[in-house]
Amino acid sequence: MKVQTTAQIGRSLLVSVWFLMMLAACTQDGGGSTSPAPSVPPPPVAGNPATVTLASPAQNATVPVGPVTVSFTTQFFTVGPPGQTHLHFYLDGDLVPYMFYSGAGIDADNGVLYNGVHTHFVHWKSAVSFDIFGLSSASHTVRVVLADQSHNELMNAEATKTLAFSVSQPPTGDLTLQSVLSGLNFPVGLSLAPDGRVFFNERLTGKIRIIDQQWQLVPTEFCQIAIVTSGEQGLLGLTLDPDFATNHFVYVYHSAAGPLRNRVVRYTESGGFCTNQQIILDNLPANGNHNGGIIQFGPDGKLYVVIGDAENTANAQSLTTLAGKILRINPDGSAPSDNPFFSNSNANAQKIFSLGHRNSYGFTFHPHTGHLWETENGPSDTDEINRVISGGNYGWPTVRGIVGNANFHDPILAYVSVIAPTGIIAIPENSTAYPTAYRNNLLFAAWNDGRIRRVVLSGADLTQLGSTSTAYSGGQGALLSMMLGADGYIYVSNAGGIFRVVP
């Protein structure tokens, strides 16, 4: 949900710095490094202009949904680390370049930067290749240009190449997506009000928006919040108070400056506008990536808050920091006395519900069991689906995936190939919108391949894995937040719109 713009990818992916969404984590944070580039690039050889050639995919190729690997070669030119000669590339109509580097110390975390930060639209893969994630089933272009130490792009014709390709429409699965609202700006945190309105965040603009009961966007924003948006920062999470019909409370998680931090604030809705800002939690851990930010109320009336490890893996196992945790707090921000670490003298520990988390873009409470299910973004492997319990330790960074270590809780699912899971939701047992076999199942979305996967839970308490499959095969680009609508259907967002998930 493991978010920056790419056109912003032709407006089908819009902006992100991510769930996602996801948005990982994203994922594929692993990678190797190459031999150091010379500190001073060799001068061009007379008659031998610096040249870039696109090796794959082939020009005008049609590629399947999922990560698209673009590879290239250069001649008479060295792609080096920051401060040396390197490569720029542009996706679709986006006018802002991605900077591609290679050499000593370069890997998937720093090999491709957009506005100076790592993003989850594109990952460095090797010294001569990068992966593009979350592309919609449509035509796309990549333009690559060689650049000097000062980011000046070389002017000779051989230094620029443009690749055109198409992403195919995948086979139809059990579920399809029907567009209900388009032209949006990275909608996340979809939350249904008792009167049928839907509240959501625009992650990068700082605006909270409202959709009316007829699925029309209210022209004037509900609220405008001052945020920062580098990397995975921004307006990240939103939820409504369980007693919203009476108190009209709207809770929001966002990144703020001066100093950089995340925080949870509460507004009171009045006449369709936000009033009476109250800070619930302040000075939460923040960094360029792994900020978490998903918030929801549980069936116990407590507010649950996901915070990523803030790119410091040691945070996740320490009870003295809130990073790498799921918090459980009272609506006013205080710690409930029945929290698992409430007896700890540290004020942070008292708010912690579970630990050992890397970064999450989604969690949900199962309507039948009340269990908390969470998507977890791994690094270069082991994205997870976890059932989170009070006081549970989910292993990061000590262990990843299903390992059978009694000191940690294994996920119900772990994915070797990264998919960057984002939103997750449970289908109610009395649903009439979906086939009977789907009742009490989990559905979760993914950023990297834009698919929705189905998890059939089994056992008397629905804690075991019965089976898993792909219910929606993708085609609308990277997917973000999920919500159960007033009509019983599930709704999911991508970077530019919201869709109804239908059989």
From TrEMBL:
Keywords: Signal. SUPFAM superfamilies: Soluble quinoprotein glucose dehydrogenase (SSF50952). Residues 1-27 form the signal peptide. This is Glucose sorbosone dehydrogenase (Modular protein). Pfam families: GSDH. It comes from Nitrospira lenta. Residues 185-493 form the Glucose/Sorbosone dehydrogenase domain. PANTHER family: HEDGEHOG-INTERACTING PROTEIN (PTHR19328), HIPL1 PROTEIN (PTHR19328:SF13). It comes from the Bacteria. The keyword Signal applies. The keyword Signal applies.
